[in-house]
Amino acid sequence: MNRLLTLLFALSLFAGHAFGETSNSPSDPDPAEYTFRFVADDDMFYIPWNGNGEELDRLIACIAQNRTAIANGKVPVLVDGYCTSQSSEAENLAMAKIRSNRVKTEMILRGGLTEACFTTKNHAAKGNYVTVRIVIPTGPSEAELESRRRATEQAEAERLAAEKRAEEERLAAERDAEQKQRTEEKQAEEKRLAAEQTATEQHKTEEARRATKEATAHTTAAQETATCDMGLALRANLLRWATLTPDLGIEWRIGDH
User: Fold this and answer.
1) Which of 26, 29, 35, 140 has its CB 3.0 to 4.6 Å from that of 144, i.e. a possible disulfide?
2) H helices of 226-254, where?
3) What is the CATH topology of the domain spanning 2-139?
4) What is the pTM of this model?
């Protein structure tokens, strides 16, 4: 019995090594498919056995990178259980189901997933293992999409800020133009009023000069007509009388010269 178990164990190691080389290369840093080996006639998931621990670590790391997309249903997790060690197809399917559930339990406990994240199929063929495939879309990742969204929002914010600055500058220019126009109109009105005042003052000055000239002429005429034939003349200066400084003089002419 011991020899039979040892032979079966050696055969499983050889089969596992060969299958691992064909399905998942250790050089692949982020494989999309992960394979977990099971001992024939046993449904227990031995993590330290036959490279299962390394495969599980890589699977959990992949889940951590895509947890949001997996939880949102954008990245499906496909679980396929295989069993051929039982005597009937129904027993093989039942064993495959248990093995699939063992692997999903680890993903739920260590990866934070839920049963709704999995699509499970069990097969009574090929061998004694469970495969997990994470179908990562070829498009941009969640981080890239978030980065693009932030860049778009930043560009939109910068555009709105630029439009706001342009509007503020336009309003400021309009206010400056209105202020300049009001200043120019005020200066023009002041110049007009000053010109009118100057013209009025000049008119008054001209009127005063004309009145003074007329008064002087009238005074001279009065002085000339005040002389009598006997040589006596009554002399008065009307300009002095106009300034409230009255004067009166008598002249006696004794000769023509």
Assistant:
1) 140
2) 238-242
3) 60s Ribosomal Protein L30; Chain: A; (3.30.1330)
4) 0.44
